[in-house]
Amino acid sequence: MDMYQKRVRLRELLNNKNECTPVMGAYDVLSARIIEQTGFPVLYTGSFVTGATKGLPDVGLVQMQDLLPLARDIAKETDLPIICDADTGWYHSANIWRTVHEFEAAGTSGIHIEDTVFGKHTEFPPVLLEKEAMCQRIRACVDARKDPNFLIIARSDAIYLKDDPEDAIDRINAYLDAGADAGFLVFKGAIASLAEYRARIKGPVIVTSVDFQDSIDAETAAGANMSIYWPLTIFAAFKAVRQVCESFYKGRDASKLQEYCFDEGMINQTISYDRFNKNIDKYGAV
């Protein structure tokens, strides 16, 4: 699919009211291709995994120029739509057009911007952007996009950071009225509580959790249109690499690490050696 077809496909999935679509997070092109080969329909990448691969915490240090290269590479090297975390948009409303243009030009299928100013992933008191200021950012993003199928998603952390579902409902509805294509809610614990007020939200809802206590079936029953599983691949990679390093350092015997070591042929298939071989057959080696 080209980038326009991917965006149309993402909209179709977002508007599916019968099933919550899982959106798997990738931290590099290799993990994105594994996700694609597994059969998942949508990719995601964001500030947490981008910061983690650079050894940085997700506390506002990750900027647009950190995220863009990864988003561009994944969009270019896979056939799946990709949603990208654009943090707060990095600019105020008058300048936020640049964020939209850069991610559109990178071939991605949509971005989300959030209303958190400070406090995410920390123990400090959280600060949320004023609702109307966030609405202005949403309006500016919608006006800036060139492809009407490029998704503008509005994230609110009012539940995650303030445990305030009523404020979250009010904010998400305001963001939808401002032109957002979907509202994005972050939960601690079970997302099943969404069912209590889903009918009061006036558009598609995307969810995620910081501790993943639900299944896709439970998220579907709660009324979520999509659920973002942002950390699963990088958490899995972290645990496996750490285990291999610790085991090999202590035991000094790589032969005992077979459960963690993939067949080289499998990796070669994932990183397009097959394309190279076909090109040699077609064009020759010189």
From TrEMBL:
Keywords: Lyase. GO terms for molecular function: lyase activity. PANTHER family: CARBOXYVINYL-CARBOXYPHOSPHONATE PHOSPHORYLMUTASE, CHLOROPLASTIC, PHOSPHOENOLPYRUVATE CARBOXYLASE. This is Isocitrate lyase/PEP mutase family protein. It comes from Herbaspirillum lusitanum.
